[in-house]
C-alpha cells in the first residue's frame, strides 16, 4: 500500500530540512514539490524517483490547487511512497491541510513531517528572536495575502492589544497597508520593525526601521517576495544578534569542483560559514571494472608487504572489487596499509581497517618517501590511471619493487559552461576550490580556452595542484595541509583579505 508524506522542506537553508524529512525523501518514489524548495534539497531526491514540479507550469503560473490535489490523489492511490514537499512548514499557510482533506476523504494513507517555518527561522537568521521575556509574551503569525482588488482582512486593533511580536507572511505588496493599519489602530510609530528577505539563504537581506519608516525603507531597498515582516520590540536586538551576516564567508561566491559524490562535505562546510556555493563537479572518477590487473594482485596479496591508496575513491573501488571477488577484509590481514592522507584513512576505517602509514604531508611524493623509509618488500599501488609520477619516482630511488595498478580514471565530463565563464570573468565568483590537479584541468575545460581567470582566487590542496592553477593564470592560495578543514580555513583567511 502506498502513502503520501507531507514534508516541510524548511525556509531555504538546506541544512534546515529535518532528519525525518530527509528520511522520507530517501524512500520516495514520487516527489511533488513547490517553488520555494531549495535546489540543494531537490538534489536529495533519489535518482529513481519521479519529480513533479507544481511550482510553475508552462505559463509560469503555479499549478492550480485543485490540480495539485488531483495529482496527489492519483499518485497516492498507487502502491508507492509519494512525498509532497513544501517550503517551510506545510501547515503554516502552506495549504497542507487542504491537501490532506481530499486524501482523508478517499482513504489514502498519509503522514506529516513538520518543517522549520520561515516565520521563525528568517527572523532568527537576521538576529531577531521572535519572543524575548523583556519584550513580549506572545507571537502572532498573520498572512498579508489579499485577493486581487480586495482589502486586507486583518483586525489591527486586536493585534495591537496583544502587545506580542507580529510576523506577517506574504506581505510584501501589502506592506504599506499593514503598517498604516497598525498605526491607525494606535501602535506607536517608533515601534522597531524589520523585513527579512530570502531569509536563511545566501541572498538574505534585513531592512530594519521603525514601523513608521519601514514602507519607505523597504521600497527604497526594492524588497521582493519571499520576505517576512516583523513588528515588535524584539526587532531592536537584530543589530546585536545578526550572527548570520557576520559569518566569515558571508557574501562570498564559491565554486566547488570536486566530483559530485565527494562535494557534499566541503559544500556543507562552506555553506555553514555563510558562502554561496555552486557545485560544478569538473571531474568524475570512474572505476575500471572489471579490472583484471587489480583482481590478479588481490588474489596474490602474499606477494606484497604494502598496499598504498592515494584517494578515498581508491579505497571505495578496492572495496567494490573485493566484493565482486566474494572476498572481505580478512584477505588484507597480512599486508600493511598506507593512505595518502586522513580522508583516505577514513575511507579505510569505514571498513574496519586502520592505515599503518599516513605521511606527514599528504601528497604523492611524501607518501613515496614515507614508504621508502619503511618498506623492504614489494609495494602495491592501487590508484588513478594518470597518478602522479612523484610516488613511483620515490619508490624507484629507494630501489623498492612495486606494481602500479590503475583502478580508476578521471574524466572531464562537464559540459562547457558559458554561464560559469561569464560569472568568473565578471567577478561574480570569488573563490574556486581545487582539491587536485585534475580538478584544475576540469575547471579549465568547463570555462573554456582563453577565459580571463585573474579575478578569482584558487584555494588549493597541495603544491602540485597550485602549480597547475598558476600555469593557467589563476591567483592561488595553498591550504596548510591536504584536508578539507585546512581548505576551508584557507578560504576564510582569503576572504579576510
Ligand atoms: N509554509 C511556509 C509559508 C508559505 S507562505 C513556511 O512555513 O515558511 C509563503 C510566504 O512565506 C512568503 O510570502 C514569505 O512571506 C514567507 N517565506 C517563505 N520563505 C521565506 C524566506 N526564505 N524568507 C522570508 N520569507 C519567506
TrEMBL record:
Keywords on record: Methyltransferase, Porphyrin biosynthesis, S-adenosyl-L-methionine, Transferase
One of the protein's GO biological processes: methylation
Name of the protein this chain belongs to? uroporphyrinogen-III C-methyltransferase
InterPro entries assigned to the protein according to its UniProt record, in alphabetical order:
4pyrrol_Mease, 4pyrrol_Methylase_sf, 4pyrrol_syn_uPrphyn_synt_sf, 4pyrrol_synth_uPrphyn_synth, 4pyrrole_Mease_sub1, 4pyrrole_Mease_sub2, CobA/CysG_C, Siro_Cobalamin_biosynth
Give an example GO molecular function: uroporphyrin-III C-methyltransferase activity
Entry keyword Lipid metabolism: no
Which part of the chain is the Tetrapyrrole methylase domain?
3-214
Q: Which residue numbers delimit the Tetrapyrrole biosynthesis uroporphyrinogen III synthase domain?
A: 266-489
Reported EC number(s) for this entry are 2.1.1.107
Identify the domain of life.
Bacteria
